[in-house]
Amino acid sequence: MSKVVIAVFDGLQLSQISPTVTPNIYGVGLKGCIFENHHPVFPSVTRINAASMTTGVYPGTHGLAGNTFVARDWDQGRVIPALEFELSKMLAGGTDPLLTDSLQLMISDFGKEYFAIGVGTSGNAYVHNYMASSLGGGTIHPDFSIPNELNRDYLKRFGAWPAQTLPNTLRYKHAMRIFIDSILEEKNPDVALIWSSEPDKSQHAYGVGHPLSDKALSEADQEFGKLLDYIESRPDKSDIDIMILSDHGYSTVMGKIDVKKEMEDAGFNDDLSEGRILLAPNGGSVLIYLNDLEEVLVDRLVFWMMSQDWCGAILATEKLSHLEGTLPASIIGNDGIRGADLTMSFKWSDENNEHGYKGQVFSTDGEVGVGQHGSMSKYEMNNLLICYGKSFREGERILSPTGNVDILPTVLKLLDVPIPETVEGRVLNEALLENGEKISQMERCARIQGLDTHEGLLLFGKEYFYILVFFAYFLEFLACGEEQMGSYIFLKHS
Question: Of 285-289, 298-302, 420-424, 475-479, where does mean pLDDT reach its minimum?
Fold first, then answer.
């Protein structure tokens, strides 16, 4: 049975990993599994992805619809930020910030604990384990901790948290010291997570690939190297699985759009001022809540948005599915009681920024040339996942589509804890070793007769060969063998 250590680098893309800027992350990637087609949930913002990581479900199910959103079961007339002070207020008022179970609850009945420490936003840290006082484990952030006594104890032992700076290296160093010396060494939980606010913080200020953003990332990687050294020094190092991931990818701002002002100028001023339309900006997207579903208003609003040169895809809830040109929010798991009636993702392009990184997007925030996220840009919807340890295959590049919702069920699998039926993600079985099995060879294969696919992967193991079939964006495992285990389909070979 494994212990799991998770290191999150906010806003990091696979294309940014290199032996010069991130030698420690790069080195783990060479030894472990790199997931080339890993995805966040949409909108591609931090707090909803943190919630999906710790619940294994999509935003429509867990209820944290955006970095800013409307919790209609709490206050249907107000856009709220998903920050600790607001989410804890909801909980105190009898409304759960998350509408489904999270990791600590799932493992507490099995005597296991989850500790998380982060130096990003307070809302991100809060959702990891906000019930720690009653369920066990803990969550630590410079502004608060759960249980409360954790920060009091750490203040006495490690001193005050450094002020937030750009880059945020000093805070991350402080967090890493607590993570290694106390959380891992003394508390020794079954799952431990540390969250770096870089390179996200610097990329928002300077842009993706800017020398100062690279410096921030390099410094974060150096701290991560300390974590690797510590794990290597532990007598139980062979029982520790490491997961390196990010919450989302990144684009570059090609234009800043004040959607509220644009709507006012287009004649929606009264609807906005009287609360018939509520806007929750999320960087590269805008969540639109309608307290008046009068058909004329809705049709006029959608028609107007589609006519704007900054407008990209528009998602609609089931009750507005009649609107031509919109996509159903349900297809990406965003339809729920706190889901927006309409979600507009800004238009994006493949163009390079001045530092050679692809992806440009309109945004509600940031100046032209700096980094941003929140849209459906493929550069934001492709984020980082690298796994290494006794449970994972060595030196593999995983091509199957995976997502942040898959983190929780995979962690539960590593802990040998049952996965609840409510979980919407899947176990990353294609990266796991089963009963000591090792992949000895991997070859692309041509179209297989009778299968609706252009190509697959033929994986040769010690005792079995596997056929992995790509159908649209989904990985299908083909039932063609003598035995079936979990999501694997395999056939013995001589």
Answer: 475-479
